[in-house]
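Feature request disguised as a bug report, sorry. It would help if multi-protein outputs had a clear separator. Right now it looks like this:
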Amino acid sequence: MARIPKDYWERRSTQLMQRLERGTEKTIDSLIKAYEQATKNINKEISNIFKNYTKDDVLTKEQYKQLLTGKETDTYYKNLLKVINNNITDETIKKKLLAKYNAPAYSYRISRYEALQQNIDVELKKLANIEQDITKVRYVDTINEAYYHTMYDIQKGTGIGFSFAQIDNRTINMLLNEKWIDKQNFSQRIWDNSEKLGNYLQIQLTADTMSGKSIQRISSELASFMNVGLYNATRLVRTEVNHFANEGEMLSYEELDIEKYKFIATLDKVTCKHCAELDNKVFNVKDRQSRKKLSTFASK
């Protein structure tokens, strides 16, 4: 069999990455819309508080004291729990939120300010839930595209048709649940980032309100903080897509008992230094980073 030219594999690899990037951009567009909506919702909550306690755009010390001592109604709890039940689909997170915010309803009534912070927390959990749902779709598509596209390229390049196993849901879920960075899977990283952002926003809101900042200034700073959260989310998506694309390709190599592969990096201004250093190097499939044996493909 004739040797397949190097530029064939480079061209096919580039085409695959371009297809994945187009899908990734659509996912990022959805994330942008979700973060923009969450920012609007949080700003609305803050604005309502200011309107209830002052006619100006800042709170005096006395008004801030009233905000801290004014008690929220029982209706608030019913609405909060309804929001959690209707918007959080991750059962583990839902149970934690219900346990966290249901208990106080039977012991004491919290202040309006504490309620505001709870609303911010729940709004960010809603955002994280959306982020988890839309990115999961992208990652599943990425694994499938990388696997089947690689199989097609090998068949086309060699001119040999062959049968191969299909990827089943158990294999997909095993890859999605893999804790390959900081002992967390992609979902855990989303919720962890959400928790950090929520804690930061609540602390910053307290500092801004106590210092007498205007509602316009607080809203502007909130948008900046949320943009940082969006930046981290989009960076995570790009990293995860690259990871799952590699996993999909490796699955195809393992399925075909391919022993060696060459790392081909797209050398441009966004290529990381580490990837550039690996360009054109040959590796043994068996020597790649450890991963649980995925022997759950459907029958050929």
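(second protein starts here, but nothing in the output says so)
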Amino acid sequence: MIRSVVRGTGAALPRRIMKNADFEGMVETSDEWIAQRTGIRQRHIAADDETTASLGEAAARAALDNAGLTPDDIDLIVLATSTPNNTFPATAVDIQNRLGMHHGFAFDLQAVCSGFVYAVTTADLYIRGGLAKRVLVIGSETFSRILDWSDRSTCVLFGDGAGAMVLEAGEGTGSIADRGVLAGSLRSDGTHKDKLFVDGGPSTTGTVGYLRMEGREVFKHAVGMITDVIEATFSAAGITAEDLDWFVPHQANKRIIDASAKKLGIAEQKVVVTVDLHGNTSAASVPLALSVAVADGRIKKGDLVLLEAMGGGFTWGAVLVRW
């Protein structure tokens, strides 16, 4: 059978680093308060010349270099983002052009923080369906553009960045020992829309709007929803938490990460955490964390890696990959 095998990963971050202490003159908060409640210590903030497209392009080039491939080798680009450069066309098409890629096809996928997990499963379907041999999957965000910098409950949480992965068709036997995407589970529930959303849009206000969040409500639902899709993924693959080598969760809040891992019985030393360095970068958070763990040698060929995310909507999902 066909499997979608990871060939390479890459990342890109804006030049500017914003520390927790930098917020102390802007809103009523402190480094200690932010770090204690979220685990975040810094985040990267995009300059005027850094956009979702430019960061996505840089991450894509890094992933291609890591894979030993060029844009000519790619058939499809799937970009997960909630902060596109334009209402249309898709920012994926912009990245395609920036890469000098004039064949194949490209599109954006919008599932907020779950976007990259949704994008990986989407790319896997295109590969297994024979419509693409190699897919560039990107998560790129500039959430700083949609933050209300006077709202201390949200502005301290988010950052900008991009991460990318190259998936390639490979042969598998259909067993858990195969390399590539092995199983996944995706969910959404629109009844929670008002708990995490942006209060603007072309069809409603005609404005970009700002991010609004009911933090306690999101936290209340997060652990249960995350556990739900992970257990479904474990069941589909016929494994348990003990079989995992690495757990790469959405980097939103250290407390949610810790509580989810504990509930699932995933050992602390198997959890990849970068929320302290990047903050919540929405669809970019999982590929950024992956890139860090691959670059420092933690994630190696043959490792069993679980990706997970939850975002506005609510959307949530998990995908299991043999590296």
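Even a blank line would do. Unrelated, but nice: The chain has a mean pLDDT of 98.
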